[in-house]
Specification:
The complex is a heterotrimer. Chain A is mainly alpha-helical. Helices cover 82% and strands 0% of the residues of chain A. Chain A has one helix and no strands. The longest helix of chain A is centred in the middle third of the chain and has 42 residues. Chain B is globular, with a radius of gyration of 21 Å. Chain C is elongated, with a radius of gyration of 18 Å. Classes of the chains: A mainly alpha, B mainly alpha, C mainly alpha. Chains in contact: A-B, B-C. At the B-C interface, α5 and α6 of B face α7, α8 and α9 of C.
Amino acid sequence: MMPELGKYAGEVLSSYAASLVLLAGLVVVSLRASRKAKMALEALEKGRQDG
Amino acid sequence: MRLNALWEYANPVKFMRLTDRVLPVVSMLALAAMVVGLVWGFFFTPDDFRQGSTVKIIYLHVPSAMMAISAWFMMLVTSLIWLIRRHHVSALAAKAAAPVGAVMTIIGLVTGAIWGQPMWGTWWAWDPRLTSFLILFLFYLGYIALWEAVEDGDTAADLTSALCLVGSVFAFLSRYAVNFWNQGLHQGASVLRAGALAGDTEERVSNVFAVPLFISMAGFVLFFIALVLLRTRTEIRLRRAKALIARERLS
Amino acid sequence: MIALLMRDLKLAFRAGGGFGLGLAFFLIVVVLVPFGVGPQTALLSRIAAGILWVGALLACLLSLDRLFALDWEDGSLDLLATSPLPLEAVAVSKALAHWLTTGLPLVVASPVFGLLLGLPEAGYIFVVLSLLIGTPALSFIGAFGAALTVGIKRGGLLLSLLVLPLYVPTLIFGAEVARRGSEGLAVQTPLLLLAGITFGSMALLPFASALVLRVNLR
């Protein structure tokens, strides 16, 4: 399945790896911030209704 | 009439309601296009006769570089909308887009360096294109840092919008200045680089490479849109939470 | 406006006003570079024009954070904002005062520092000329950066991060004039472009500075 990358295998693989890590990191950070903001806001709105 | 209807989505509540439905769709499309484009590019394209398998880097390098510039342009437009029409969603979208654009710039620079190493024999050259990307990255850093430093939301939005406007003019000037500067510095060497960077990738891409490249570019665009929507939603929620806390403290 | 300019100049010349600090910093940069790259005269004279430009740019940066900050802290900026003088004129006069107290001394001192670096003889006139034309742009761009960060505590570092990328085109064209002049090449194109940036910055940036000052004063 793995394509023949020849003598540039290191370059191609490392650039794909680096890019995917960066993109995944961005997604994870964004998702985590989104979840945190959502929970904080829900807690606040709940508190407002109770009070 | 249609355009006026568009402004309604500048209302945060409407924006949240709309993106609640749109975001999953865009995310799925982005994922699909990126997977198809990148897998196709990585596994099912032939090697270039001169560049060997390094040509596969193009499926990351070109789309990310394109998005790095597009993201700044989008920030410029949303900053203008904020300054003129005072829509909060617009300012927050600019804030949400900046880190995404910065990461795209890093990807463009990193893949470019890895690609340049075997092709030109050097990781980094002070080539006009490379240099202007580095400057663009500095602009992103300054913009993000200014957002972080100012506490009041509206003040921060105003200041960063002004920085974005002035920065765009100077980024544009830098692009031309850098062109001028490098030509002046080493005339001979730039022929090779211009050929390898500007000429070959864009003009000599045959169909075998072009189709997956376009899919990958579409994937990056969708990915950017999905992330910006998600991050804008986060910013809107944070802003609302802040307002609620402030109101509570008052009462 | 002239009264404001005179006041700023007077404040700058008074002890602790920061006048001469930029000049001393410029000197230190020029002295440090040979320690970094080695004492070969041939190498130094080749990079002298560039060092002088980078040094001047950093020296300009040094005194920027006090451009509006002092008036901001003691509230005189609020007074200026409510005075009949438009805020744009305040921005112009502040930038001008900064140039007169920082940029102009650098221009005057640059031939002496060029001597230290073994600047080629043909280069002196062009270094002075390019600095004379280019440093006003540095002051006006810097005034915009200072206006942006005036409300931020410890904004000095942020100011450098914001202003330095904006300095890139000015530095490139200015250093290009100085370098080409030193090598006896034609300087007309970069000189015109440098002048274009300076006049463009002087004409347009005060409006941007006034805009962000108003936001910060709100």
